[in-house]
C-alpha cells in the first residue's frame, strides 16, 4: 500500500485519493444430499485505488478507479495509475469535496478460523435437517476471512479484519404425486445458532406445505402479507428513494421534507440508516470514498426528513454526508403478527424471485409458497403471481410489531398491504 | 483485426506446465485455468460521468481429483519465479482439503479420459477498442445523452454506458494446453422520464463479440429509446388473466433462457433439481419449436473456443421439432452422469466454482409473418421490454418481468400500453402453446445470468417473434 501511495504522491495534480486493500481467505464446501460435491480454498488480494482530480478553475472534479492485483509489476502499476489520472482529468463532474477526516478510533480483529467455522456450520446443517426430519437436497457453505486496510490523502489509515459466512440451501418435500423444492440463502457476520435453527426448521415445514399446496385462486385483488427477506426487499424502496444519489439523478419519486404517507391509515414509516448492526457482514467504519460512516434518521413518522448517502451527492445537496451506509433499521408497527393475520388475505412466504423496482415502487413475483387466510383457516397455495405498487398502496401499509435482525436489516418480520393484484390459476 | 493475447499469460505458460507436471504425480487429475481479462466501463449521465474498471480479473484456479474426490484452489498471488515452491503451496492447499474430505462421502468423478488438445485462438473485432481514446468515447456517449434529452421534455435523466472487455484465458492440464483471447462489448441507453404517474425508466441495449463498432449500433438506438420511454410512461396496470401473446425476440430469448435453459443445465440433473431428465425424447414444446445452446453458435458475449474446464465449445441441439433431445453439461456433472461435457462449464471468475451455465441460447426460426401474428389475435398483447426472469427447473415454473405490453384487439394494435407485467406459468404449457414463429432471429446479451441468486456470468439469448398463450399479471 505504501508503494501505491508513493506512486500517487508523484502526481501533484491529484487532489484526493483513497486506497482500499483486502486480502480474503476462504473455505468453501458444496454438498449434494449428504455427499460432498467438492471443496475449495481461496486466497486473493486486491487494492482499489480511487483518484480525484479538480480542474484548474476548481469548477469540476473528475474521478477514476483502478484495481491493482498482486501480480502487477511496478511498471504495470505505474502505467495503470497514469491512465487513471488521465481518465480522472477527462471527467468533468460538478465540483465537490470529501470531508477531511484523519482520526478514527476503530479496532476489530477477528481471528481466522475459516475451516473450523465451516465444519461447524456443516455439522449444524446436517443436525438441523435430522431434527426437523427435513429432506436436504443440496447446500453450499462459504466462510471468508478478510483483512482490510484503507487510507486516504488526508492521513486516515485503518486496519481491521472480519469473518463472514454465506449459506445456500435447497430443500425438498414430496407427496405421492410430486416432489417440490424451496431455495434459501443466508448471509451473516456472526453465527446465531438459535435464529438459524428456527429459520431452517421453518424452511423444512414450508417445503412440506408447498408439496400439498393448491393452485392459487383467481382473486384479481387481495390483501397481501409478506414476511422476512421479502419485507426487507419491499421496504428497500424507502432506502433507495431517500439516497442522495437517487435524488440528484432524478430516479426517486420522493422529495426531502415530503410527508410520504399523508393519508396514512396504516403504520407510518420510521427508518434509520446505520453504520453498523450486530451480525451484519457490513462492519466497515468508512465507505468507498473513505468517509467515516454516521448513522442517520431518514424517515420519521412517515416524513422524509433527511437524505443519506455518499459525500459527493451530499455536497451537491448541501447536506452533511452520512457516507454510503449499508445497514438499515425500520421500526415495528402497532399490530402483532397474529393481528395482521386475523383478517382474510393472501400470505406469500416464498417467491420464485421477488422483484421490486426501487424507483417506481412496482413489485411482483411468482408464488412458490403462499397461504390463503380465510375465516381463520390457512390453506397453502402455489403458482400464479402477485403485483402492485408500494407507493400507490403504502397509505395502508401495516408493519408487524415483532421485529427481527437479519444481516444488514433490522425491522418488521411481516407486513400487510391492501389491494394487491393477484393472477391466480383457478 | 484480432485481439492481442495476454502477455502475462504467455509469460506464465511454461512455469504452469512445470507445476502441472509436478502436481500430476500426486493426484489423478490436475488442471489450471489462468485468467487475465481487462475491461472498462464508460458512463455518461445527464449530470455526471465516470470511467471504471469492468469485469477484469487476473488469477489462477487449480483443480485436482484424488480417488474421485474434487478440490480446487483459487489464488492471485502465487509467485511462479520458483515453480517448485509454487507447486508446493498449491499441493499443500489441495492436500489439506483431501484430508478434510475424508470426513464425508463424496460424489465421485473420473476425468482421466480427457482428450489431448493444443489450441491458440484469438478472435477479431471490427474496430479495436484502442482506436479511440477514452476522451473520444466519452464524447460520443455525451452526444447521445444530449440527443436523447432533447427529444422529450419529460426526460429527467439519461444514462448511457459503453463497456469493453478483452478476455484472455489459458488452460493447462496434463493433456491440454489452450490459450484464447476474445473481445466483447455491451452498451445501453437508460432514459428516465417523469410522467403522470411519477418517474419511470426504460432500458435499451446492444451487445456482441464486437469492438467499437457497437458505438454505431448504440447511436442507432436513440429513436427506439425515446419511443420506448414514451410508451413506458403511458403504461397502466394490466388486468390479470390468460392472454394470447406475441413476444419480441428479446422476450422470446428470455423465455428460452428461463423456461428451458436453466431446466436443462445438467448439474441440476445430478442434484435431482430438474424435471427435464424425465422428458428426454418426449414432446416438451410445439413442433414449431427448436432450441440450441452453444458458445460456437453466434458471436455474442458468451462465445468462446473452450470453457472454464477446458472443454471445447459446442453447438448443442436441446429441442428439435418440439422434442427434448439433450441438456447442456459441465465436466464434473458429465462424469457423474456418464455422458460427455458440452462446453458449458463456466465460472463467474477464477475465484468461483464452475457450474453448468448457458452460453448463447435461442429458439430457432419459423416462417410466420409478424403482421399475420397480430391479425390472428382476438385479445392479447405484444410483449416487449425485458426486465428480469427466474427459473424453477424442479417444478418447471417460469417467471419473467417485462416493462410493456401493447394491446391487440381483433387483430389490430389499439395504442394502449400496459405494464409492468409478470408472465408466469408451467413451462411445457407455455412452449406447447406456441403456434407461430417468425423467420428473423436476434440475440442479445446485455444482462447477467445468476445461478440461483449468485454466480453472475454473461449469457446471450434470443430467437424470433413467437405467438403463444400465457398468464399475465
Name the features.
heterodimer; A: 426 residues; alpha+beta; PmbA/TldD fold; 2 domains; 7-stranded antiparallel β-sheet; 6-stranded mixed β-sheet; 9 helices; 22 strands; 41% strand; globular; B: 473 residues; 3 domains; 8-stranded mixed β-sheet; 10 helices
Write up what this structure looks like.
The complex is a heterodimer of chains A (426) and B (473). Chain A is an alpha+beta fold. Chain A has 2 domains: 2-210, PmbA/TldD superfamily (PmbA/TldD fold, 2-Layer Sandwich); 215-423, no CATH class. Chain A has helices at 2-9, 74-90, 114-132, 193-211, 229-241, 244-248, 311-316, 337-340, 390-393, and strands spanning 16-32, 35-54, 60-68, 93-94, 135-152, 157-174, 179-188, 214-215, 220-227, 271-274, 296-300, 303-304, 327-330, 345-351, 355-356, 362-374, 377-382, 385-389, 397-399, 403-406, 409-412, 414-423. Chain A is globular, with a radius of gyration of 24 Å. The model of chain A has no long low-confidence stretch (mean pLDDT 95). Chain B has 3 domains: 7-39 and 56-122, no CATH class; 129-171 and 179-234, no CATH class; 241-472, no CATH class. Helix content of chain B is 23%, strand content 40%. Chain B has helices at 7-24, 83-101, 134-151, 213-219, 222-234, 249-261, 267-270, 331-336, 370-375, 427-432, and strands at residues 29-45, 49-53, 57-66, 69-75, 105-106, 117-122, 155-173, 176-195, 198-208, 241-247, 291-293, 316-320, 323-324, 345-346, 355-356, 360-363, 379-392, 397-409, 412-418, 421-426, 436-437, 442-444, 448-451, 454-458, 460-463, 466-472. In chain B, α3 (134-151) crosses α5. The model of chain B has no long low-confidence stretch (mean pLDDT 96). Chains A and B meet through β1, β2, β3, α2 and β4 of A and β2, β4, α2, β5 and α3 of B. β2 of chain A pairs parallel with β5 (105-106) of chain B.
Amino acid at each position: 500500500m505504501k508503494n501505491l501511495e508513493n506512486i500517487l504522491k508523484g502526481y501533484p495534480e491529484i487532489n484526493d485519493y483513497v486506497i482500499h486493500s483486502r486480502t480474503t481467505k476462504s473455505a468453501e464446501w458444496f454438498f449434494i444430499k449428504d455427499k460432498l460435491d467438492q471443496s475449495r480454498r481461496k486466497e486473493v488480494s486486491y487494492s482499489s485505488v480511487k483518484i480525484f482530480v479538480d480542474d484548474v478553475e476548481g469548477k469540476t472534479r473528475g474521478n477514476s478507479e483502478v484495481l491493482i492485483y498482486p501480480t502487477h509489476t511496478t511498471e504495470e502499476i505505474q502505467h495503470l495509475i497514469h491512465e487513471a489520472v488521465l481518465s480522472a482529468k477527462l471527467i468533468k463532474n460538478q465540483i465537490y469535496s470529501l470531508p477531511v477526516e484523519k482520526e478514527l478510533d476503530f479496532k476489530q480483529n477477528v481471528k481466522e478460523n475459516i475451516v473450523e467455522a465451516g465444519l461447524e456450520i456443516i455439522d449444524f446443517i446436517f443436525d438441523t435437517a435430522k431434527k426437523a426430519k427435513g429432506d436436504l437436497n443440496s447446500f453450499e457453505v462459504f466462510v471468508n476471512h478478510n483483512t482490510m486496510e484503507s487510507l486516504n490523502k488526508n492521513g486516515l489509515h485503518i486496519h481491521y479484519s472480519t469473518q463472514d459466512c454465506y449459506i445456500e440451501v435447497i430443500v425438498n418435500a414430496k407427496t405421492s404425486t410430486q416432489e417440490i423444492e424451496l431455495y434459501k440463502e443466508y448471509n451473516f457476520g456472526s453465527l446465531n445458532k438459535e435464529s438459524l435453527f428456527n429459520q431452517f426448521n421453518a424452511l423444512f415445514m414450508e417445503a412440506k406445505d408447498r408439496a400439498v399446496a393448491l393452485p392459487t385462486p383467481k382473486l384479481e385483488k387481495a390483501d397481501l402479507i409478506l414476511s422476512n427477506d421479502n419485507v426487507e426487499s419491499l421496504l428497500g424502496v424507502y432506502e433507495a428513494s431517500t439516497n442522495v444519489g437517487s435524488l440528484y439523478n432524478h430516479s426517486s419519486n420522493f422529495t426531502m421534507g415530503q410527508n410520504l404517507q399523508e393519508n396514512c391509515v396504516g403504520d407510518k414509516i420510521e427508518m434509520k440508516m446505520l453504520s453498523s448492526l450486530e451480525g451484519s457482514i457490513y462492519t466497515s467504519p468508512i465507505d468507498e470514498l473513505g468517509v467515516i460512516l454516521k448513522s442517520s434518521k431518514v424517515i420519521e413518522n412517515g416524513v422524509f426528513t433527511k437524505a443519506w448517502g455518499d459525500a459527493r451527492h451530499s455536497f451537491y445537496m448541501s447536506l452533511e454526508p452520512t457516507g454510503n451506509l449499508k445497514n438499515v433499521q425500520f421500526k415495528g408497527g402497532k399490530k402483532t403478527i397474529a393481528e395482521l393475520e386475523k383478517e382474510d388475505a393472501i400470505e406469500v412466504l416464498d417467491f420464485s424471485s421477488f422483484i421490486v423496482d426501487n424507483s417506481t415502487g412496482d413489485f411482483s413475483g411468482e408464488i412458490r409458497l403462499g397461504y390463503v387466510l380465510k375465516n381463520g383457516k390457512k390453506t397453502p397455495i402455489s403458482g400464479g403471481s402477485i403485483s402492485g405498487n408500494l407507493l400507490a398502496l403504502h397509505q395502508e401499509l401495516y408493519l408487524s410489531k415483532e421485529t427481527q435482525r437479519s444481516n444488514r436489516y433490522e425491522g418488521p418480520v411481516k407486513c400487510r398491504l391492501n389491494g394487491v393484484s393477484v393472477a391466480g390459476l383457478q | 483485426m484480432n485481439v492481442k493475447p495476454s502477455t502475462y499469460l504467455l509469460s506464465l505458460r511454461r512455469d504452469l506446465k512445470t507445476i502441472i507436471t509436478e502436481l500430476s504425480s500426486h493426484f489423478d487429475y490436475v488442471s489450471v485455468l489462468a485468467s487475465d481479462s481487462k475491461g472498462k466501463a464508460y458512463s455518461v449521465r445527464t449530470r455526471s460521468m465516470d470511467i471504471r474498471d469492468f469485469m477484469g480479473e487476473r488469477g489462477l484456479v487449480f483443480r485436482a481429483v484424488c480417488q474421485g474426490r474434487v478440490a480446487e484452489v483459487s489464488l492471485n498471488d502465487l509467485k511462479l519465479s520458483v515453480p517448485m515452491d509454487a507447486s508446493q503451496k498449491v499441493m499443500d492447499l489441495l492436500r489439506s482439503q483431501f484430508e478434510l474430505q475424508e470426513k464425508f462421502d463424496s460424489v465421485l468423478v473420473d476425468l482421466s479420459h480427457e482428450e489431448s488438445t493444443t489450441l491458440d485462438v484469438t478472435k477479431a473485432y471490427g474496430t479495436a477498442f484502442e482506436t479511440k481514446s477514452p476522451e473520444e468515447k466519452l464524447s460520443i456517449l455525451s452526444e447521445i445523452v444530449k440527443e436523447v434529452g432533447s427529444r422529450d421534455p419529460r426526460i429527467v435523466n439519461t444514462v448511457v454506458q459503453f463497456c469493453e472487455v478483452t478476455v484472455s484465458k489459458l488452460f493447462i492440464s496434463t493433456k491440454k494446453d489452450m490459450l484464447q483471447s476474445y473481445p466483447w462489448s455491451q452498451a445501453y441507453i437508460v432514459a428516465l422520464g417523469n410522467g403522470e404517474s411519477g418517474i419511470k425508466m426504460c432500458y435499451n441495449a446492444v451487445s456482441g463479440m464486437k469492438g467499437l463498432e457497437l458505438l454505431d449500433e448504440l447511436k442507432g438506438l436513440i429513436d427506439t429509446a425515446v419511443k420506448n420511454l414514451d410508451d413506458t410512461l403511458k403504461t397502466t396496470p394490466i388486468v390479470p388473466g390468460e392472454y394470447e401473446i406475441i413476444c419480441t425476440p428479446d422476450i422470446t430469448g428470455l423465455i428460452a433462457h428461463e423456461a428451458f435453459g436453466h431446466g436443462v443445465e445438467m448439474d441440476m440433473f445430478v442434484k435431482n433439481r430438474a424435471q427435464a431428465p424425465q422428458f428426454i425424447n418426449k414432446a416438451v414444446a410445439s413442433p414449431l419449436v427448436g432450441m440450441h445452446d452453444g458458445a460456437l453458435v453466434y458471436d455474442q458475449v458468451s462465445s468462446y473456443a473452450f470453457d472454464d474446464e477446458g472443454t471445447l465449445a459446442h453447438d448443442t441441439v436441446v429441442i428439435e421439432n418440439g422434442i427434448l433431445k439433450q441438456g447442456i453439461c459441465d465436466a464434473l456433472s458429465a462424469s457423474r452422469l456418464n455422458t460427455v461435457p458440452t462446453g458449458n462449464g463456466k465460472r463467474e471468475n477464477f475465484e468461483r466454482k464452475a457450474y453448468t451455465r448457458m452460453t448463447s441460447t435461442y429458439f430457432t426460426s419459423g416462417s410466420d409473418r409478424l403482421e399475420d401474428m397480430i391479425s390472428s389475435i382476438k385479445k392479447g398483447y405484444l410483449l416487449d421490454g425485458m426486465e428480469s426472469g427466474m427459473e424453477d427447473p424442479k417444478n418447471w415454473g417460469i417467471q419473467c418481468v417485462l416493462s410493456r405490453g401493447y394491446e391487440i384487439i381483433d387483430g389490430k394494435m389499439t395504442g394502449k400500453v400496459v405494464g409492468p407485467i409478470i408472465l408466469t406459468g408451467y413451462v411445457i404449457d407455455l412452449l406447447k402453446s406456441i403456434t407461430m414463429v417468425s423467420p428473423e432471429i436476434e440475440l442479445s446479451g446485455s444482462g447477467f445470468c445468476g445461478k440461483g441468486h449468485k454466480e453472475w456470468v454473461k449469457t446471450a439469448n434470443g430467437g424470433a417473434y413467437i405467438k403463444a398463450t400465457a398468464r399475465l399479471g
